[in-house]
Amino acid sequence: MSEMQQLKAKDYKSDQEVRWCPGCGDYSIIAGIQATLAKLQIPKENLVMVSGIGCSSRFPYYMDTYGVHGIHGRANALATGIKVANPDLQVWVITGDGDGLAIGGNHMIHSLRRNVDMKIVLFNNEIYGLTKGQYSPTSPRGLHTKTSPFGSVDNPFIPIQLALGAGATFTARTLDTQPKHMKMVLEEAAKHKGAAFVEIWQNCVIFNDGAYKEWTDKRVRDEQTIQIVDGEPMIFGADRDKGLKIEGSEIKIVRADEATVWNSRAESPGAAFAMSQLDRHPEMPRPFGVFRQVSAPTLDDMVHDQIKEVTDAKGVGDLKDLIYTPDCWTVE
Amino acid sequence: MSSEELIRQDDVTIRFAGDSGDGMQLTGSQFTDTTAKVGNDLATFPDYPSEIRAPAGTRAGVSGFQIHFSSHDIYTAGDAPSVLVAMNPAALIVNYKDLKPGGIILVNTGAFTEGDLKRADLDSNPLEDGTLAGYRVIEEDINQRTIEALEGTELGKKDVLRCKNFYTLGMMYWLFSRPVEPTLTWLEKKFAKKPELVDANTRALKAGYNHGQLLRLFQGRYEVPKVEGTAPGTYRNIMGNESLSIGLAVGSRLAGLKPFLGSYPITPATEILQQLARMKNYDVVTCQMEDEIAGVCTAIGASYAGRLGITSTSGPGLALKTEALGLAVITELPLVVVDVQRAGPSTGLPTKVEQSDLLQSIFGRNGEAPIPVIACSSPSDAFETAVEAVRIATEFMTPVILLSDNYIANGTEPWKLPEMDSLPDMKVEFVTDPEGFQPYNRDERLVRGWAIPGTPGLQHRVGGLEKDHVTGAVSHDPDNHHEMVLTRQNKIMGIRETIPTPELAGDTEGDLLVVAWGSTFGQARAATERLQKKGHKISHIHLRHLWPLPYGLEEIFAGFKHIICPELNLGQLARVLTSEYPKYPFESYAKVKGKPFQAFELAAHFEKILEEKS
Ligand code: SF4
After folding, report:
1. pLDDT, chain A, mean
2. How many domains, chain B?
3. What would the pLDDT profile of B556-606 be if each residue is shown by its tens digit?
4. SS3 per residue for B183-247
5. Which residues of B touch A79 (CB under 8 A)?
6. Are residues B418 and B551 in the same domain?
7. A207 Cα nearest atom in ligand 1
């Protein structure tokens, strides 16, 4: 591709006016995805953005790519059909905590289990935004919403755990307020061959503003979160003096020089699972970055490999052979 | 009478009945294949329990297979059997009442111990207590005969007894003068790797055949001459689900498309997924998904990406797919939805027949969501109907619902194979030119173009929100919505321009018109012809296209004093016709017993109407 034809982030924008609430975290995510696509120079005609229903699911309309705005919860199934029908396409699923983990939870786990080669970006704002503020499957217990006026009594999912449990070959978490980190994670996801699950903490300014303040506020951020990077020791703290040490399924806070070197490519998802469990422990920092990244055959490849194998063995099917089988007989 | 003398019969119906484990479906299908080769016309219908492993010997575990074969053309799997083969007391007691008076019952007395009777819930032995008065009962200890025939074999007793269905098959071959060779060839192929089973079953089959003669059990032997004047051509005996699957693959190829089936196993449609999964070298992709909704959604996704999306299901699954069908309607993507109907509501009677999804198919969606609906009328007709479904879906960029049912799906009949060069050319063209492209540009029939991902310059979005009538951008404009709803409706009604008025069997004027659809074809046609022969002014019209309805029906209705719609539901077609053609009274004849109509029952009802109303 010549210099002239270089695609820029803005080239991925459609002519549609973006209609999220001012200040919504979605703006930063769409910018991050457009920048990532430009960085990787993915041809627009080879991209398909697929979504379900919810604030995040308006996403495809704002992209000058192919796109399907589906029905509630079914984006992963639509995307599976698209990818298997034409494996040359790069398929992105844009979903949210309600769309992808409540009504669409079944398709989510099965598309991860099958390792369909697609990028799944889950905007997690711990609330139903489009329907104006009801608790979601990731809302913390006790959250006061319109449908939980006395506090939610539901136990929330930790999305990363669900993905790991379903066998996702790429699992990562990032935040809308940290565009650099987000782009790094999205780029890794885009390059991954297989189902790439990316949870993005996304602030809903209208119905759940400040949901992540406890962790993301500038004053506490360094103490309350940790960025995990493959091959680097897990260090955090304002003075970068603390570390995390993995001992079996336990994780402890230790001195920085005792920190475990993070390995996102380990065969067993055990350590990644233990790290995801930190969300249940208020005294521990919450991890961001790539939890797990392993390679495995993808559904779309296997489907077409099998077709090729059978076709090589039997020859391209002739329609006549389907109709005229050896057990037919002729009447003169 | 010497047992070698052949008594000519023109029309025979046999029902094989036994425990699920007795292999009656196999016996029936072997008898069928051989009968087809002999040159009889035939139709079959299996009747099996929905419990996979109902307790052995109980009434719930009875599995049956009925074959109707004849020296002339026939339409149905037969009304009342003239021969019943009952392998145990449960099979006998569940089936004997269906038999014609004076019919033959062959009973395996080897399975009539106290315990066998108890398992069948019988206090006394029906062979002794007069239950079977009026029938010709032939008692034979088939268990013992099979053991004798296989003396010296290395098979264990259990395996030996499993050969009793082939012994029985042999007896039936002798009784109806069929050759054993086709089954012998089949056995050799089937058990190529297990020669001991080929040997055992061959011995059982031959013994049954010879004993039929030697034991003089029967008072004669029958012949059913082959059909004379059968239209020349090549034939194959085919089951409905199989011919439907072939039709989907062939139709896709004729449209120049590669099929994609997204599906979920459900009785009685599962066979379609199984069939298409075998056709890998025809570039057929099948995905067995996590549920019915994923099945249809992957198919919609595949259509968006340029394959032909197909999903197969039964009534409960169609209900689950409903919301996604609306998405296919509003995105105007081609999609073939096969509903092999079964008795409902809810789980209903999963292995029994009903036609009760018609209204669900035509109307059962939120919003104004018109979908064309067509139905096949017999196992062989399922092929052509499937090709037609593909044609409508691709020519009109729309989902299409194809209704089959349990009776067609598992029934068989000889299929006159189409000449390859007579198959329609229905090649699809994708849009590739970015010049002036708009996703909702339409041609004169209101059909939008199909532009697929991967095509440079044609990036566009489709989705469930209402779209601007040209650009496809989300639009909440009231007038635009009104226009889009009407456009989608008019597009579907425009399909009428491409479908023929169905042929009328009988005169264009008369006292009674039978209007039917789907699997009632055979019984409705047979009943009509019977009454025509008796001099009644009755005609039959069978609808393949149920929505939109073809042109020309009104003119036909006008020629008759009365109109009756026999259906295996509470009058769903009658209701549709009443609202579409309010000038005519449509009377419904409803049956919802999980069983097909019988031709004689229709004939009797029609005759009553003819007499009452004349
Ligand atoms: S409701 Fe919340 S999530 Fe939705 S657009 Fe507004 S701020 Fe964003």
Report:
1. 96
2. 3
3. 999 999 999 999 999 999 999 999 999 999 999 999 999 999 999 999 999
4. HHHHHHHHCCCCHHHHHHHHHHHHHHHHHHHHCCCCCCEEECCCCCCCCCEEEEEEEHHHHHHHH
5. 301
6. no
7. 2
pTM for this predicted structure: 0.92
Nearest CB to A330; choose among B234, B279, B281: B234
- Assess whether B318 and B198 both reside in one domain: no
Residue with CA closest to ligand 1 atom 2? A204
pLDDT, tens only, B511-533: 999 999 999 999 999 999 999 99
Residue A213 C-alpha to ligand 1 middle, in angstroms?
17
Structural domain span for residue A195:
3-211+297-301
CA dist B614 to B491, B562, B565, Å? Answer: 43, 10, 18
Provide the CA B487 distance to its chain's centre, in angstroms.
35
| CATH code, domain with B112 | 3.40.920.10
Say how many domains are in chain A: 1
Residue closest by Cα to atom 3 of ligand 1? A204
Chain B residue whose CA is closest to A79:
B301
Domain assignment present for residue A24? The answer is yes
CB within 8 Å: B301 and A61: no
Digit-coded pLDDT (tens) for A40-64: 999 999 999 999 999 999 999 999 9
The CATH number given to whatever domain includes residue B522 is 3.40.50.920
3-state secondary structure labels for all residues of B356-399: CCHHHHHHCCCCCCCCCEEECCCCCHHHHHHHHHHHHHHHCCCE
CATH number, residue B374: 3.40.50.970
Residue with tokens 């493959």: A230
CB contact under 8 A, B285 and A48: no
Note whether residue A207 is domain-resident. Answer: yes
Has residue A33 been placed in a domain? yes
Is B499 contained in some domain?
A: no
Q: Report ipTM (2 d.p.).
A: 0.97
Contacts of B97 (CB under 8 A, 6+ apart): none
Q: Are B263 and B358 part of one and the same domain?
A: yes
Alpha-carbon gap: A268 to the closest alpha carbon of chain B (Å): 26
pLDDT the model gives residue B54:
81
- Domain end residue (candidates: B200, B223, B246): B223
Give the domain CATH number at A17: 3.40.50.970
Distance (Å, whole) CA B24 – CA B36: 18
Ligand 1 and A30: CB distance under 6 A: no
Q: Is the beta carbon of A18 within 6 A of some atom in ligand 1?
A: no
| Chunked mean pLDDT (size 10), chain B, 614 residues | 70 94 92 92 84 83 93 88 96 94 94 95 94 92 95 91 96 94 94 94 95 76 87 93 98 98 97 97 97 98 98 98 98 98 96 96 98 98 98 98 96 94 96 96 97 97 95 94 98 98 97 98 96 97 98 98 98 98 97 93 96 84
**CA nearest to A81 within chain B:** B298
Pairing of strands A196-201, A170-175: parallel
If one residue of A58, A130, A204, A208 were mutated to test the ligand 1 pocket, choosing by the most ligand atoms within 8 A of its CB, it would be: A204
- Residue A82 included in any domain: yes
In a domain, B383, yes or no: yes
From residue B576, how far is each of A71, B207, B355, B370, B586 by CA, in Å?
A: 30, 56, 14, 14, 10
B1 lies in a domain? no
Candidate from A20, A176, A200 with most ligand 1 atoms within 8 A of CB, to mutate:
A20
Whether ligand 1 lies within 6 angstroms of the CB of A123 is answered as no
Range of the domain at B415: 236-422
Q: Is A112 left (phi over 0), alpha (psi -120 to 50) or beta?
A: alpha
Does the beta-carbon distance from A84 to B287 stay under 8 Å? yes
Domain for residue B176, yes or no?
yes
Element (H, E) at A199: strand A196-201
| Domain shared by B287 and B411, yes or no | yes
